[in-house]
Amino acid sequence: MSNKLLMQIMTSIVEGEPEATIDLTRQAIKANLEPLTIIDDGLMPGMDIVGDRFQTGEYFLPHLIIAASGMKGAMELLEPELKARQQALETTGTMVIGSVAGDIHEIGKSLVGTMMSASGFQVHDLGVDVPVEAFIAKIKETGANLLGLSALLTTTMTVQRKIIMALEEAGIRDQVKVIIGGAPISQEWADTIGADGYAEDAVGAIELAKRLVA
Ligand code: B1M
Predict the structure, then answer these.
(1) What is the CATH number of domain 93-213?
(2) 166 with 178: CB under 8 angstroms?
(3) How remote is the CA of residue 88 from the centroid of ligand 1, in Å?
(4) For a designed S-S bond to 97, which of 69, 129, 136, 148 qualifies (C-beta 3.0 to 4.6 A apart)?
């Protein structure tokens, strides 16, 4: 991370200064830094440090909440920039996406949704803590051909399996390709629960989605 602004963005997240995070992100956009560079090399490394410090007991829940508010504010500035970079794309598919029941982590899920939409997919973002039945109902309503399931906790990743089972019970498993993601998720887990694929990040999710609907 050579850029000074990116370093400052990371530090502002770690030190819990959301207003500075937002202001620095605005400056980075003005300086013509790519939105994904700002996310991957400024905001996310900051969030990773905050997460590590939480795990070791150095930080507490309020630290996570403050860091997330900075990142969310920055994402509000970055989303239109991400979308502006992809114009006049043909709709390549329809995706229903959400963070699974019991999981209120929203930033990564929203980033995936924004990037998918910027890449020409029609996206129905159901938000966080989404009940299993709500995913099923939305797929039936929209005729979506892709389902994106985000889970950030080892305790909620099992809900991804429940949703795949519910798709089977509803007789619509063949209609949708299921993409799963989130920090504790792996290809191995995707294979175990019968998902169609795992993506490590938003860019990976787009590549995978395009491959799956091709
Ligand atoms: Co929470 N939290 N949190 N948290 N939190 C983690 C996930 C944790 C790893 C922190 C840690 O201990 N190191 C840990 C989970 C441990 C585990 O289960 N293995 C944890 C915990 C324990 C908890 C609570 C249980 C804490 C408590 O209450 N004691 C609690 C649970 C709440 C719940 O959901 N029921 C909790 C709460 C919260 C806040 C609400 C305070 C806040 C979220 C606020 C919000 O979203 N509005 C929060 C935060 C901010 C974090 C960390 C620090 C950052 C998450 C984040 O936004 N990252 C996180 C530590 C970490 O991740 N380093 C942590 C930035 C975001 C862009 O990345 O979401 O990973 P991420 O998304 C990535 C990829 O994962 C991927 O693409 C994105 C990047 O391009 N991806 C997908 C995500 N979804 C995808 C879907 C796809 C494909 C890719 O296809 C569909």
Answers:
(1) 3.40.50.280
(2) no
(3) 33
(4) 148
